[in-house]
Structure formats: structure tokens, C-alpha cells
Amino acid sequence: MSISSAFNSASSGLRVTEARADMVASNIANASTAGYTRREGTQVSSGGTGGQTVDLRMARQVDERLAAMSRGASAQLGQANVTGEVLRGYLSTLGDIGDEISPAARMADFQAGLDLLANNPSSASVQADVLARADTLVRSLNTASNALESSRTQAAASFQSAATEVNSALSDIANLNAQLRGQSIGSPSFSGLMDEMNMRLDALGSQMDFQSRWESSGTLTLFTAGGTELVSGTDAARLTVDTQSGTLFADGTDITPNQPGNRGITSGRMAGLSQMLSNVIPQMKLQQDELARGLVESFQDADSSLTAGQPGLFTDGGAAFDPAQSDGLAGRLGINANVRPETGGALWRLRDGMSAATPGDAGATAQINAFIGAFDTARPIATAAGLGSSARLGDLASSMVGAQHNIRVSADSQAGTASIRLATFEDGRSMVEGVNIDTELQKLLEIEQSYGANSQVLSSLSDMIDTLLNAV
């Protein structure tokens, strides 16, 4: 090897060593920087007329498969967490089956009050106690209905907010695509842009599941899990939502989850919110209304004093039940004013019937027993309520409360599983992408040795040249 070739080799070695030192220093400096991906360098040699030289190729350490699995688990966790986020306040208001605030407990308490009245039908204090228990039952359903509507309003606002957040992320990805075009792979600016892209994709992952593909132009194309295009080059789709129906669109294409024939999303926070608005909350509301309908119709049917069109003990805002106005009945459920002394009614109608004109026999129990019998009669339930085809009032109340709490229990179980999967994948990513300070410091020692060796070569070559020149 000639002196000039050796000089070129040693000089290139110093340049590579300097580049490696810069890279390691950058890794250490950004060890705690969110979204930063560890850089690793590979030395490659090349030959030429000037001798053998070395160069450094730098690459971000990424496992795309692990990243995709991590984002998938994040989407599942985001979807499962929606249930607790939206329904936590409502279910607290509803109470569990054994809680005294729940409609199921209030129903049993009211039934027990009627049993007491059957044993002492003439007692004004017992009659007043039955009315108070009926009021408490009605308020429990009214309160639950209002709380569920508040949850629906919260879900609608979150759905709209999530769409805004996703639109911002999609726009950012399209802008990053524009910046990535023409960038030299492995350059510091390219690596920085890729780190930003990685962060945008991770943030998007909790909102919705997606597929991605890197194009030959160096840009990223994004699709829904069903194949609808979200980002292509510098163009990003715009998401819009219908907060009443839970429908989700991408530039007018329906990507609502779990819709036959749709090429939409399948998981993520947006999928959870969509299902809340389209299915979960409407079914919960129907269950409440079916329970309210059961109360109104049962006590209308059991009241022998009524004529057609007259309301029973439980009313739809003071009126008899109208099948065409059943939606929202739980929120309008009330007590017949004919039993309220403060509004001109009389407590004895709890013994004699809501439309009785005059008090009957003080010891009569026929009407009271008919009211008690209403609890033993199975009544039809709307199939869409998901609580079977028929049930007695007490069983219907318990089934409703139990079914609605089970939704939360099931979601919490799914969230626990998704959280474990996400933690596992994130640990794997951290091993690949993260910076280990001890490892980087060891690399600095190797770099120092390499620098010293190349410097020694240059120093020896310089001495050789000086010796040759002195010999001339």
C-alpha cells in the first residue's frame, strides 16, 4: 500500500470515527426525548485508485412489525377504555343490583310497601309511606334517564373531538410526506422526520386501527383496516361524524365500524365512541323505557277503577301510556296526581283505585292485592332491549341493572388484556428503539480507541514522509 493510500484510509477512518461520536452523543442526549429512535451506524469499505476507505451508514433502529402490533393493542385499549370514560358517571348514579339507590332495589322496596298496605289498608301513614316509596322508585328512573342522556352528550362531544384530533394527525402525516420527498435516507434530517412520523402514527393508533405502506417515493400511504384510503402522498382525507347515529365518514365514504360492506375501522377509541352512540346507549335507554312502560301498563291494567285512556298510579308525565310516545318514557315517568293530597288528590286511592270517586271500605284489600299481583305477571319486552322476550317487573329491573353493569365489567376485562399486550409490545419496542446509556458509553470507549489508532497511523505516516524528505 502506498503512503497516500494509507493516508486516505486513515483519514476516512477519522471521519467515520467523528461521525460515530456525533451519533452516539446524539443518542445519549436524546435518551429521554419522547419519540426519539436510537441511531445505529454500520461501517462499510470501498476501494478506489486512492486506496481502501471506510464510510458510515446510519439507520434508525425500528421493528415495524412490533410497532404495528403495539398500535393495534393501543387501539384495542382505547376502545375498551371508552366504556368506563362514558358510562362511569351513569353507572354510579344507577347503582348496582344490591345498592339501595338502584331501580331494582327501589322496585323491591315499593313492593314491600304495598305488602304492608295490604295488612293495614286504612292507615293514612302506611298509605303515605307507599306513596313515598313510589316517588323514590320514579325518581330513581328519572335520575338514571337524565344521567344516561348526559353520558350520551359526553360521548357525542368526545366523538366530535376525536374526529378533530384524527384530522389533525392525518394532515400532519401528509405534511411529513411532503418533507420526506427528496430526503437522503440516513441523513439527520431524514431521521428526525421519521421520528416525527413515528410519533404521529403512535398517537393515531389509540384513536383507530389502520394499515400503512411505504411507497417508492419515500412517502407513507395510510388506510383504514378495511382498506379505505386516509393519506396518499400529500393528500389527507377529512373525517366527519354524525353524533346522533354514531356514523363516521372519510371524505364521504362510510367507515363506521362493524357495518356490513363497509371498508371502515374495526377498533380504537373512535370505534368505541361510535358503538356507544349507535348501539350501547340506545339499548340502555330502551331498557329503561321498557321498565318504565312495564310499570305504567301493569298498574293501569291492575286498576279496576280506570276507564279507557285514564292513567294509573304510574303515568307518562301525567297521561296514560301511549305506545307511539314510548321513547324517553323513563325520564317522563311520574305519579298520578289523584293520590297526592297537595294537588287535590287523596291517599285512599292507593287502596281504592286512581279514578275512585269516593272512599271505599276502609278494610278493602282487593285493589291493593291487584297492584301486588302486577309484580307477579310477566310482561312482554321489546326484543331490541336484549333482556329476553318477557319478564316480571322485579326481574326486569334486576336484569336491566345487571346487564348494564356487565357492559362495564366486560370492557374493563378487555382493557386489562389490551393493557398487558400493549405493555409487552412497548417493552419490545423499547429494547429495539430505546437508548441504553451504558451501552452508548461503552461505544464511546471503542470510538476513543479507534480515534487513537487512526491518529497513530496518521502520525506514523507523517514521520515517514518527514524521513523521506530529509533523505532527499
TrEMBL record:
One of its GO terms (cellular component) is bacterial-type flagellum hook. InterPro entries: Flag_bb_rod_N, Flg_bb/hook_C_dom, FlgK, FlgK_helical. Residues 104-302 form the Flagellar hook-associated protein FlgK helical domain. One of its GO terms (molecular function) is structural molecule activity. Signal peptide: none annotated. Keywords: Bacterial flagellum, Cell projection, Cilium, Flagellum, Secreted. GO terms for biological process: bacterial-type flagellum assembly. Residues 36-55 are annotated as: Disordered. Residues 8-37 form the Flagellar basal body rod protein N-terminal domain. Belongs to the flagella basal body rod proteins family. This is Flagellar hook-associated protein 1.
